[in-house]
Amino acid sequence: MPQDSSMLDGTIASIDGAVRSLGLEDDMRSVLVEPWREIQVGLPVRMDDGNVRVFRGYRSQHNAARGPYKGGIRYHPNADLDHTRALGMLMTWKTALADVPFGGAKGGVSVDPRELSTSELNRLTRRYTMSMHHVLGVNRDIPAPDLGTSAQTMAWIMDAYGSIHGHTPGIVTGKPIELGGSLGRAEAPGRGAAVVGCRAVVDSGSTPDQSTVAVQGFGAVGAAAAQTMFDNGAKVIAVSDVDGAIINTNGLDIPALQEIAKNGGKVSDFDDADALDNDALLALDCDVLIPAAIEDVITAQNATDVRAKIIVEGANRPVTSAADDILVEGGVTIVPDILANAGGVVASYFEWAQNIQVFNWELERVNLELDKKMNEAYDVTKTQADRNGGSLRKAAFDVAVSRVSETIKIRSYVG
Ligand code: NAD
Fold first, then answer.
1. pLDDT for position 414
2. What are the residue ranges spanned by the domains of the chain?
3. What integer pLDDT is reported at residue 12 of this predicted model?
4. I need a labelling partner for 385 at 20 to 30 A (CA). Which of 57, 64, 126, 138 fits?
5. Mean pLDDT for the stretch of residues 274-303
6. What is the pLDDT of residue 10?
7. Do the beta carbons of residue 140 and residue 109 sit within 8 Å?
8. 74 C-alpha vs ligand 1 centroid, how far in Å?
9. Across residues 398-403, what is the average pLDDT?
10. According to the model, what pLDDT value does residue 359 have?
């Protein structure tokens, strides 16, 4: 049985595949694989009880050939440099494939945010910003929320950054609407995943309204993906969150579930459904499976249990490289993360552009432009896959690596 590799090794393997099929030189490979700048900092924070705890913070700025570095900041106990680096690389390929004028980066703090009070999180975030502000900037590096961080975290970063550099809404995306956040930004990664998911359904010879869907994770990405699939007529039969899963083969009432989630409830609080084991959701007989929670949920161990025809990677790297090989070999279509959840960074681009122009778009415009970008990214990926006879993941990396390497050449970046 193939072995599951780390996220970093899996990402580098995808780059190597593209380097080979594009016929790029070893020198270019080195430039593409190496992060351009990395920072690791100690973050001393006074806790509410008066003691000081020192947290470790990271920012991996992978590549800025196509524009300022762009990527979220994750607060998670497992955040470390390797993991942050892998996620930063994914951002470079995501922004290139979506054709938005950014590079790729990621940040992280090794912390369980649930163990900290709001004021402790506020102090930690300001300390992180003060340690990093010299490498951030509207035309330099623009953070966003990720796991464990939120619009509130972005508001603290904007405030701390502004205390040195002056009022700068464009320094972060995914911030509250009141501070210059964009309408539709929170729903964009899930909506985008559903848009490309529906394209894959049509390419498989079916239609969304004939399809059944299971969604793992009912947070920002999962709930919006479920809602958009529901709005397109699909029957969403199962959803889960960290506390459990539910199923109704007649289709779940997604708007009602959204109400429960918005009021802090769990999906298992919903009455009109049966309880389901969390792992069993991944093995359900359905047309489309959308893992939209965390990474490494479909591995070499459980890949053969998957019965869905199409997997849409709402989360980052939910399918390991070894599982990907097994599934693609078995005829499953995988819409890869750098395509499927690119709606987040596309809407971040819209937010950044609105901030620079000091002009707010209406929701209809955001969604229209988002759908256009997602369809274009799907088209270019599918065309490449059809031309080369490979998977959508292989094709997506080919397109992204080709765009980034071309820009590096035109800039004459190598000294
Ligand atoms: P979130 O915190 O809003 O939601 C995560 C959801 O997953 C929650 O419902 C949680 O209960 C659930 N969950 C966690 N562990 C689970 C498990 N083991 N089984 C089932 N459910 C579980 O996070 P999010 O913003 O929706 O992000 C989800 C994923 O999408 C992450 O991988 C993130 O990196 C990726 N992503 C997010 C964005 C964004 O802008 N929000 C953009 C691109 C990619």
1. 79
2. 34-168, 188-335
3. 92
4. 64
5. 97
6. 86
7. no
8. 11
9. 98
10. 96
Burial class (CB in 10 A: 0-12, 13-18, 19+), 412: exposed
The candidate with the shortest Cα–Cα distance to 57, out of 37, 38, 35, is 38
The arrangement of secondary structure in 188-335, i.e. its CATH architecture, is 3-Layer(aba) Sandwich (3.40)
Among 295, 341, 352, name the best residue to mutate to test ligand 1's pocket (greatest count of ligand atoms within 8 A of Cβ): 341
Lookup: tokens for 345? 């960074």
Q: Is the pLDDT of residue 1 over 90?
A: no
Residue matched to tokens 């992180």: 128
Surface-to-core class of residue 290, CB atoms within 10 Å of its CB (0-12 exposed, 13-18 middle, 19+ buried): buried
In angstroms, rounded to a whole number, what is the distance separating the alpha carbons of residues 72 and 105?
8
Q: Give tens-digit pLDDT for 305-334.
A: 999 999 999 999 999 999 999 999 999 999
Cα torsion 194, 195, 197, 198 to 10°: value is 110
Report how far ligand 1's centroid is from the alpha carbon of 150 (Å). 12
Q: How far apart, in whole angstroms, are the C-alpha atoms of residue 41 and residue 59?
A: 9
Tokens of 33: 């694989």
Q: CB of 171 closer than 6 A to ligand 1?
A: no
Among candidate residues 253, 175, 264, 180, the one with its CA nearest the CA of residue 219: 264
- Is-same-fold flag (34-168; 188-335)? yes
Q: What is the CATH architecture assignment of 34-168?
A: 3-Layer(aba) Sandwich (3.40)
3-state secondary structure of 227: helix
